[in-house]
Amino acid sequence: MRYLTFSILLLLGAFTTITSCKDDDCTEITWYEDADNDGLGNPDVTLSSCEQPSGYVADDTDTNDDGVVATGGTPVSAFDEFNPDAVTVSFDGDDITIVSNALPNHTSPYWSEDNSLYIDAVVANIDQMSPGKIGEGSYTVTVPASPEKASSSSATGLGAIGISVTGVPIFNDEEGPNISLSENVASGFDYAGGHMGPTGYHYHLESADVEANTTLSFDDEKLVGILSDGFLLYGRKCNATDDYPTDLDESGGHTHTTQHGDDAFYHYHIINEFYVGSYIILFGGDLQGTPNGIM
Fold first, then answer.
1. Residue ranges per domain, the chain?
2. What's this model's pTM, rounded to 2 decimal places?
3. Given 44, 196, 215, 274, which residue has the most CB atoms within 10 angstroms?
């Protein structure tokens, strides 16, 4: 009986030793708080632990982890901002289709002189204005009613990357294949931030602060348009704070409420930085959602 008891004690001691060794061998790793539950962690709020703590993740790339969680899709009221003479919006289940004839409802020197919206150049350098006149086009894009951020971002290409509230297509920061927009070319843009190209009139830049501009966003929180991944693009300021947002990601996006409802959702802002010279680009980053073709 004494030998049996002694054997049991040896086994218990060995088990305790093994368990202790396992505990001693634990290598703690750093976990990052995921306050908005998007799977990305805040690099400034960490815990060290062998096992993943609740509310923390291994990723440390979240630049917008303020605890504001997306609670809604694209607010329907935002589409009331679009020019009804140019843009038709239809809803079909989980999809939204935007169709535009690309004819803006503002003045421009790019209109034909016999058009009632024609004006002499206000900010455009006449010598740098591109040839051609504003004419009817056709742009169609179908996006999800509740777009989601993709697992990886997507670079934009040449051509339309979105449709503005005026109906004019939005272009990125390139003037040609691997050719960035230059200050010289931008000097020929009208006050709306647009000019002519092979596919027609389109915007690259934020509009100018001139008396003629009664429609477009300049240094404010107005809606600018919708991009091909389904996320809305707003002006430089955040409606919720009446100031420039400080939590934007590399594409100018964040999750917050807007003037179009109480539900928070991911959207873009024009980034409050000069792109070239005194010009501010509408959108020069990668799309954070899944792009849809604009036909």
1. 2-57, 76-289
2. 0.79
3. 196
